Every structure is written in C-alpha cells, then in structure tokens.
Amino acid sequence: MSTVPADAGEGPLAIICGGGALPFAVADAVIRQGRDVILFPVRGWVDPEAVARYPHYFIDIGRYGRFHRQAKAAGCRDLVMIGTVLRPALRDIRFDWEALRELPSIIRMFRGGDNHLLSILARLFEKRGFRFVGAHEVAPEILMPEGAIGRREPSARDRDDIARGVAVLSALGPFDVGQGLVVAENYVLAIEAAEGTDQMLARIAGLRGDGRVRSAVGTGVLVKVPKPAQDRRFDLPAIGPATVAGAARAGLAGIAVMAGAAIVAEPAEVGAAADRAGIFVTGIAPDERGP
Fold first, then answer.
1. How many Å apart are CA 286 and CA 99, to the nearest integer?
2. Is residue 8 within 8 Å of residue 131, measured between CB atoms?
3. Predicted TM-score of the model (pTM)
4. Mean pLDDT to the nearest integer, 76-84
5. Partner of 125 for a Cys bridge, out of 130, 217, 231, 290, CB 3.0 to 4.6 A?
6. Cα(112)–Cα(177) distance, integer angstroms
7. How far is CA 183 from CA 68, 175, 191, 203, 246, in A?
C-alpha cells in the first residue's frame, strides 16, 4: 500500500534519467511551469555535459539507498523515470543494503517483460513514500499529436500497413513483448524485442542490403503503440530524430505512433528530419485499430 503524503505534488520533481534527449525535454517543460527538478542520471547512460546545467546526482542501478537519501533530502516526493537504459542482467547488479532488503521482489521483477519489471519497481519506490508519475502527466506537451508532423502524409497502402501493425501489437500486448514493429505491404518484417527500436531498424536496413527485404525502398512503416494493459506512468513508446534517421536508412515510407499515448522528443526537429528524408511521421487516433 502506498504511503504517499497528501501534498505529494509539492516540492521538486525527481527525474531518473536514462539516455537520450527525453529526460531533458521533460525537465525543461517542468521548469517552464515553475517547478524545480532534481535529475538522477544513471551512470554510464547519460552524458555528464548534458546534465551539468541541472541540479543532479548520478546514481547506479542497484544503489537504491543512496538515491532514497538524496531524493528525500532534496524534498522530492514525485518521481518520473524516462530515457533509454539497457536492461541489465540480475547477476551484474551490485546492490546496496537497502536494495538487498527487497531482493525477493527484485528477483520477481526480472521474471517478465519490461511492463512487469517497471510496475514492481514503482511499488518498491512507493513503499518508501515516493509517487511514480508519468512524464506525460507533468509535461503533456511531449505527447504525439494526431496527424502528421511534417509535410508528408501516409498513403492508402501505408494506412493498411499501419492497421496491420496495430492489430499485431494489440495481439502481442498481453505477452509484454514490445511496442514496435515494421510492416511492409501487409507483411511483418520485424518485431521489437530486447534490442530496442534503433537496432530493429538497423536490422531492417541490413536485411534490405542483403536482399532479404524485397519490398521497394519507400515502402513499409514503423508502428509503435503502447501495450493494451501497459502502466502508462513509464515506458510509453517514444520517437525522436534518431528514429527518423533509422527509418530512412531502413528504406521505410514512414513512422506511425499512437496520438496521445506516445512521446515525441524534439518535434520540430522530427518534422524537419522527416521532410529532409522524404518520409512521414504521423500520430494515429487511439481507435485506429487493425482488422
């Protein structure tokens, strides 16, 4: 049971930062609203120069006690976790004493997909008086709008591929597998799993170079939607300029994500990058389901 105080919305927002631009987009949005932030970048995954302009404490995976003390001392109660982190092997984590007290729960965390892991992690933090909130709750402007970002729109063929992608991801959702796939001419070319979106797109580019992808360059769509039962406080599908670059190298026609349920980093740059690459980036309506 959560022990969150009634005034949990007060005080600085703690942001546990993985890699990429999203943690800083969230931090800047919260600061513009007049709320202080304290960043907790994961060591080895965040550029020290990028985080230097914010109040911050570097943290190590498994060292929960230090984070707990630093966040509490700073007056943090609300907590956001966002950014890219490679899921470590349990045997490689060096736990401190406070984390070791929760070892049975931590072991259970690693016996399932990412949504399973993060849901248990949230409960562990809430036991200590923190409250997990979604990045989109504190910075709603980072959510993907409905419709195209940039000049290009998906064709009728692209929309068929999008519908097939949404249908497949909806069917896979209960298995906590992934949030993205690539469909070309109604044929599923790849499903995202442990490698993440960027590596999945690199795989498509490699397959195309080897002649294993027969569809023409300029066909196929990267589709990303949240899992049906996903805890949306964390790990929403996300895209950014690097996603556009990867989709272009893979020879795709474009990218489709769920409007209002996916995060877009640097939307102006995403639109500009899509226009330069000649691909579309679009937000689809939540009811745009496949057959």
1. 38
2. yes
3. 0.82
4. 89
5. 130
6. 9
7. 43, 20, 9, 13, 15
- Residue 102: Cβ within 10 Å count: 18
- For 56, which DSSP code? B
Mean pLDDT of all residues in the chain? 85
Q: Which residues contact 76 (CB under 8 A, 6 or more apart)?
A: 11, 12, 13, 14, 38, 130
Q: Which domains does the chain have, with CATH numbers?
A: 13-140 (3.40.50.20), 143-284 (3.40.140.80)
Helix (H, G, I), strand (E, B) or coil at 34: coil
At 194 the pLDDT is 79
Cβ partners under 8 Å of residue 137, min gap 6? 233
C-beta of residue 270 within 8 angstroms of C-beta of residue 281: yes
- Sheet of 37-41: strand order equals 37-41, 13-17, 78-82, 131-132
Q: How far apart are CA 44 and CA 263, in angstroms?
A: 23
Q: Higher-confidence residue: 123 or 75?
A: 75
